[in-house]
Amino acid sequence: MHKQDLIILKCGIWIFFLYYFTLLMPFTATKPEEIEAHLANNPYLTEGGLPGADDARVYFELNGVAPAQDKTPNFHFWFFFVRSWSDDLLQSWIAKATPATTTEAPKKSDEDDLFGDDDAPAKPAPKVVPPKKKEKPAAKSIVVFEVKVYEQETNLDELAKKIVAREIPGLVWSS
């Protein structure tokens, strides 16, 4: 490689890093005024109303030193609020935001196969059997009929037979 090519390569690398750190990581602890302006209208640095990777990164950049309360009160309050969470939780936010590298082979797209032929035999989809629901026993209640007769001559045995003769679903007569 020529010297000019190396210089161009180094400039390209620097441009990449500047792009990465200015666009992908917009908040840094070295920009407290920008953070203060953002926190004046938002609860967290990460967009979406929930804390996330940006909050954790800026917190770790501060190395436990709180921002000045008189110059940046929102940033100061945010610092103590984020400090209440464990470092493990903050690290997990950063880990979730960092894309994981995979070693899988690239999958073949449908555009490569012009006639729809499958290279591998199709596996039948496993049958999903819904779990059988157990029938719950009917709830039992005790109902007491208190029968008051109008006349003394009423035959109570005959009246009891008429009442028991009624069939209602789920009703079991017992004495």
Q: Can you characterise this structure?
A:
The structure is a single chain. Helix content is 41%, strand content 0%. It has 175 residues and is mainly alpha-helical. It has a domain at 28-97. The longest helix is centred in the first third of the chain and has 22 residues, at 3-24. It is elongated.
Low-confidence stretches: 17-25
* H and E string: HHHHHH
- Taking Cα atoms only, what radius of gyration do you get, to the nearest Å? 38 Å
The secondary structure category is mainly alpha
User: Which overall shape is indicated by the principal axes computed on the Cα atoms?
Assistant: elongated
Q: What would the average pLDDT be, to the nearest integer?
A: 74
Amino- and carboxy-terminal Cα gap: 105 Å
Helix content: 40-55%
Number of strands: 0
Strand content: under 5%
Please describe the biggest sheet, giving its number of strands, its sense, and whether it closes into a barrel.
Answer: none
Q: Count of helices?
A: 6
Compact overview of the structure:
This protein has helices at residues 3-24, 32-39, 53-61, 73-83, 87-97, 156-165. It has 175 residues and is mainly alpha-helical. Helix 2 packs across helix 4 and helix 3 crosses helix 5.
Keywords:
175 residues; mainly alpha; 6 helices
SSE inventory with pairings:
Elements: H1 3-24, H2 32-39, H3 53-61, H4 73-83, H5 87-97, H6 156-165
